[in-house]
Specification:
heterodimer; A: alpha+beta; 2 domains; three-stranded antiparallel β-sheet; 10 strands; globular; B: alpha/beta; Fumarate Reductase Iron-sulfur Protein, Chain B, domain 2; five-stranded parallel β-sheet; 20 strands; binds flavin-adenine dinucleotide; binds iron/sulfur cluster
């Protein structure tokens, strides 16, 4: 932990000598001693993230031990897919992450295409890229609302969630759905862009940039926010590998890793895109990285709008998808969600249904082991802010 | 803490005066996008009740249900999708998959009902406020969930086929057959339409699974002549195919042929489990008149049930019109033999060159057998009866085709006119064109008929291929006279045919006598339909039989005539085509079994 960050955090001493002894890495806590209290944060949307619970042992306001609990959202998507034809999977996977369903849609189709050896036509690739970047914009806007809200700044949540709704309007036009877009299907996408879409999208980019200026003024350049987030939940560069931390959480600790650049998919290698990082590793640095990435996504959407070919197929030539069999094989495909590396592992046994689908979202580590580690020593009142600063998304843990 | 960070947030004070983002009446002020996936609509004038929407819905939200006012007709089950909004996730996959484009969605956001049952509804039948709405999600023409394009069939080129009787259609290979089989939606509309109600989706699924043995077993459940049907069936199933509404129907006939072409004849009994049939022979005998599709189908199913069957056939070979009518280039004799030899291997005896009524009487059959099935077909030619039609160089198509099969030489003229616009006319045209080509090195044959080309009963492919083989087709003329000079045919005089049927759909051709044409020819062939020869029915039997007003023997659902021991089927009752004959034979065999067991 860098000294700079520690000194900025206005919470508790990192010195743990006065706390319970640890055995096998876990503190031994005697609740009967009346020094400690056990409380539950959640499972109703603690820190505006989705349903999960954190079992806390506190001493006064200070969190001494934290245990993350999952299981409130389990819907068995992976198993459901084993009983469904390949074409029937895309309406399922979007539910794996409500605010950013499209990465799942992309991954599940890309995995099938990879296994079946299907080349997606160029125009469909561009439309997918557009969809994915628009999705990142929507997700980041929602995240700002969550981060501000978790620190008591409800007004900002209203602004960004309201702005996200305008992006959902665009999704509605483009895909037919606001939240679950169900737009990418094996072989391509379902629809061409409606007339006038590009102009409306460009106008919304301008509008969103204006809001981003206000966000900078009220949120990032805000003394109170800074005092709450700086030094909170510091992720050291060493932790990044140890915990498998990805996405803005890793980039805010100096790690240059973004799949859009490291392993470009869809049309990212045709876009002007730069890695965004910070070094402090705390919640504030993560907010900065996300803020800048949001602005970059706006820029990328503009770039993509200029480059989508007018003509061309939006779906590869496909067999009857009712009986589509994919040759035996296994694959792992990944994409950069706003939370980091999002991957799908898929096994086909040659039949009409996938043998195994495994969806791995970044929250798996971020919301469990990373959170459990970072929560210790933090004030109860900062826990929600810490959770949002990790951009945890419980539905993605429970596929 | 920097002062800037304290003051900075105050810079957005003007937001306090801004109009809010929210709107007062969102549903009316901001309707859904044109493309929004709102609530389901179904256009009943397009929906065929195929159930593909039900099949694709991963939430099992759709059930096909009977709906008042919707009848089951060919190509339409009469059922309609009922959607359960307690299960639906509004993915619209059902819309994308619907082969008719009947199923769409409105762009409505909300639906308020006080009875939860309302949310399970039949779009199109149950009144909804959005049924007429024009906006909403529809299937994009740019994507395909199902495959509307048929796998092309390889055929001989015109110059490879116009002098010989080699089979034209080459058949699918394994890869092509599986690809074509993958297009099937398994809706089963074809089953209802097939006269034999073959389990078409079943055998197509077996092709997809590359389980040919199983496919063969499924074929033989309802059809013991799959090599024949796989080549020349009238394939009514394909007209009913759901894919036909937006693309090419499945090549059901060619897939059937693919199955049987894969299995060598000597494997049949093992695969079909008939290798020990002789252990179960019953002490009951059935006589069958006519070794055509109807008779042989009855014989097959009777043999399977253990009956001793003997077929009496007037001609020297089996197959009826399948052999003596249909030309070899469409249906090679060895393929007919493959089907029929298997039937014979089950103990079915055929006595050739025996005409019932002359060589043996029906009464004799009645006394020596427990039941009789008659499937004697339509073998009498019909004449236009125009002046000159009685000349010896005026022929019936079926007579000539029979001669060709028998191997007898035909005195083919250099210049021939054929009268008729059906498939039989095309068969004789193309047969004679080949013979002309062989004999003279060129084709000079013209085929004319009453109907204009758009309503000619012959299949389009037949017309196209006949032309490719250099036959001239000049439709829309009515024959007036066959001119005879010095006792020889000189040509055919025709007048313009204005219409063929009257407003009630009855045959009543109208002509314009002023528009005339003359087709020069030294041989004329009439191909305007066939009649039945029931001369084997003695007066005694005839008087006990019931006939329909149009002269057909009346039969019940099991093809039993008013004489209980006599069952009748095939062309003389229904059709005329091979698959009706097969279907009739199958049902009659069951009927005979029921009749004999009830005795
Ligand atoms: C040129 C032509 C092309 C055709 N093309 C097609 C086609 O592409 N597809 C299709 O589905 N159908 C086609 N048909 C029709 C099809 O061949 C018949 O519908 C079918 O063969 C009828 O079967 P059936 O058993 O009722 O009669 P038939 O096949 O006519 O068999 C009757 C049998 O009974 C025998 N018989 C008759 N009277 C007696 C008697 N008194 N004693 C003993 N034996 C007797 C006859 O010799 C004959 O073998 C075609 C017909 C013709 C003429
Ligand atoms: S898929 Fe279309 S045509 Fe078939 S039953 Fe459903 S709505 Fe009707
Ligand atoms: S929209 Fe999707 S979930 Fe709803 S009925 Fe259609 S296929 Fe089923």
């Amino acid at each position: 932990m860098s000294n700079l960050s520690k000194s900025k955090y206005r919470g508790f001493e990192a010195d743990r000598s006065k706390y319970p002894v640890e055995e096998e890495g876990k503190p031994v806590i005697d609740l009967e001693s009346h020094k400690f209290t056990k409380i539950w944060q959640g499972p109703q949307h603690p820190g505006v993230t989705g349903n999960m619970a954190v079992e806390l042992i506190i001493n006064g306001d200070e969190i001494v031990d934290a245990k993350a609990h999952m299981g409130y959202l389990h819907r068995s998507f992976e198993k459901l897919m084993e009983r469904r034809r390949y074409i029937q999977c895309f309406p399922i996977v979007c539910r794996i992450c409500v605010p950013e369903p499209d990465t799942n849609e992309y991954c599940v189709s890309a995995a099938m295409e990879d296994l079946a050896g299907i080349t997606v036509p160029e125009k469909a690739m561009w439309l997918r890229t557009l969809n994915l970047e628009m999705s990142r914009v929507g997700s980041f806007l929602m995240w700002i609302g969550g981060q501000a809200g978790s620190l008591g700044m409800g007004a900002i949540s209203q602004w960004t969630v309201g702005m996200r709704d305008y992006w959902l309007d665009l999704f509605e036009e483009m895909t037919g759905g606001r939240v679950y877009h169900m737009y990418m299907i094996p072989g391509g996408v379902r629809k061409n862009l409606p007339d006038g879409f590009k102009d409306r999208a460009r106008r919304l980019i301008v509008k969103t940039r204006r809001l981003m200026q206000d966000i900078d003024n009220t949120f990032l350049s805000n003394a109170i926010i800074k005092s709450r987030l700086q030094g909170l939940g510091v992720i050291s560069p060493e932790m990044v590998d140890e915990y498998g931390i990805v996405g803005p959480n890793a980039r805010a600790s100096g790690r240059e890793y973004d799949i859009r650049m490291n392993n470009p998919y869809v049309c990212y290698d045709n876009l002007d895109i730069k890695m965004i990082t910070a070094t402090e590793g705390d919640a504030y640095a993560r907010a900065q990285v996300r803020y800048r990435e949001l602005n970059q996504s706006l820029d990328l959407v503009a770039q993509i709008l200029d480059r989508i070919p007018e003509e061309g197929a939006i779906q590869a030539e496909m067999p009857n998808l009712l009986h589509w069999k994919i040759p035996q094989g296994q694959t792992y495909v990944k994409a950069e969600s706003t939370r980091g590396e999002h991957g799908f592992y898929m096994v086909s046994d040659g039949s009409e249904k996938p043998r195994r689908v495994f969806a791995r979202g970044a929250s798996y580590t971020h919301a469990i082991s990373v959170l459990e580690k970072l929560a210790v020593n933090v004030s109860v009142s900062d826990l929600a802010g810490l959770m949002v600063s990790l951009h945890t998304c419980p539905p993605e843990i429970e596929r | 803490m920097k002062l800037k960070d304290v003051l900075s947030p105050l810079r957005v004070w003007e937001r306090a005066a801004k109009k809010p983002m929210t709107i007062k009446d969102p549903i009316n002020d901001r309707p859904g996008a044109t493309n929004y996936r709102g609530f389901h609509k179904n256009d009943f004038s397009k929906c065929i009740g195929c159930g593909t929407c039900e099949e694709i819905c991963q939430n099992a939200a759709i059930d096909l249900v009977p709906v008042e006012g919707q009848e089951t007709v060919e190509g339409d089950s009469g059922l309609r999708p009922m959607i359960d909004y307690g299960r639906c996730c509004w993915c619209a996959l059902c819309v994308d998959v619907c082969p008719t484009g009947a199923l769409t969605m409105s762009n409505d956001y909300t639906w308020i009902a006080d009875n939860p049952e309302d949310y399970r509804f039949v779009p199109g039948a149950d009144k909804t406020k959005w049924q007429e709405s024009e906006k909403g999600y529809t299937r994009s023409p740019d994507i395909q969930i199902i495959d509307y394009d048929r796998v092309d069939m390889q055929e001989l080129e015109p110059e490879e086929r116009d002098k010989s009787f080699i089979e034209i259609v080459k058949g699918y290979n394994k890869e092509q057959a599986i690809k074509e089989a993958e297009r099937c939606l398994e809706c089963g509309l074809c089953i209802a339409t097939c006269p034999a109600h073959m389990d078409i989706p079943g055998y197509i699924a077996a092709i997809r699974d590359d389980d040919i043995d199983n496919a063969l077993r499924i074929l033989y459940e309802t059809n013991p002549m799959p090599e024949i049907c796989g080549r020349i069936c009238t394939h009514k199933c394909e007209t009913a195919c759901a894919l036909h509404n937006n693309g090419d129907p499945l090549a059901i006939r060619w897939l059937k042929r693919y199955i049987v072409d894969q299995v060598p004849a000597d494997k049949y009994s093992e695969i079909l489990g008939t290798d020990h049939l002789e252990d179960e022979v019953l002490n009951r005998k059935v006589a069958i008149i006519g070794a055509g599709p109807a008779g042989l189908s009855a014989a097959y199913y009777l043999a399977i049930m253990g009956y001793k069957t003997k077929v009496y056939e007037a001609l020297p070979g089996p197959g009826g019109m399948a052999r003596y009518g249909i030309p070899e280039y469409r249906l090679p004799y060895d393929q007919i033999d493959k089907d029929i030899n298997y039937i014979r291997s089950l103990g079915v005896e055929i006595q050739f060159n025996t005409r019932v009524g002359t060589d043996i009487t029906l009464e004799e059959l009645h006394s020596s057998y427990d039941a009789v099935f008659a499937g004697t077909g339509l073998h009498l030619g019909r004449s236009t009866r125009v002046p000159g039609a009685d000349n010896k160089r005026v022929y019936f198509a079926t007579d000539l085709l029979r001669e060709v099969t028998l191997g007898n030489e035909i005195d083919v003229a250099k210049n021939i006119v054929v009268i008729g616009g059906g498939n039989v006319a095309m068969d004789i045209t193309r047969t004679l064109a080949r013979l002309q080509n062989q004999k003279y090195g060129k084709v000079q044959i013209l085929t004319t008929c009453l109907e204009t080309e758009d309503i000619m009963p012959a299949d389009v492919e037949e017309i196209v291929e006949a032309r490719e083989e250099k036959a001239v087709i000049d439709p829309g003329w009515g024959p007036k006279e066959i001119e005879i000079r010095d006792g020889k045919v000189y040509g055919l005089h025709v007048v313009k045919c204005l219409s063929v049927f009257d407003e009630n759909g009855r045959f009543s051709p109208k002509f314009d006598e002023d528009q005339k044409k003359f087709f020069k020819a030294d041989m004329v062939v009439e191909s305007i339909g066939q009649g039945m020869d029931l001369s084997y029915l003695s007066e005694g039997i005839k008087s006990d039989l019931k006939f329909s007003p149009r002269g057909r023997i009346e039969v019940d659902d099991s093809f039993q005539s008013s004489l209980q021991w006599l069952f009748v089927g095939g062309d003389i009752i229904q059709g005329p085509d091979v698959i009706h004959g097969i279907a009739n034979g199958y049902i009659a065999a069951k009927g005979i079994d029921t009749y004999l067991n009830a005795e």
